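Chapter summary example.
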Amino acid sequence: MKTEDQELAAGHSIGPALWQDMFEILMGRIAGRFARKEPRPLTFSMADNAAAPH
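The structure predicted for these 54 residues follows.
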């Protein structure tokens, strides 16, 4: 028998390839908010690490 948490996690799981595609689309949408391109890699790395499953 599954717990409610397990059902929720299973229902919202996506594969790594889809995760990467969706992440790149999201980062593309916010990239224009940076006046310069230099801060983008650090910001994108921090966002990816923050959103990664622990």
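To summarize the output: Residues 33 and 40 are 10 Å apart (CA to CA).
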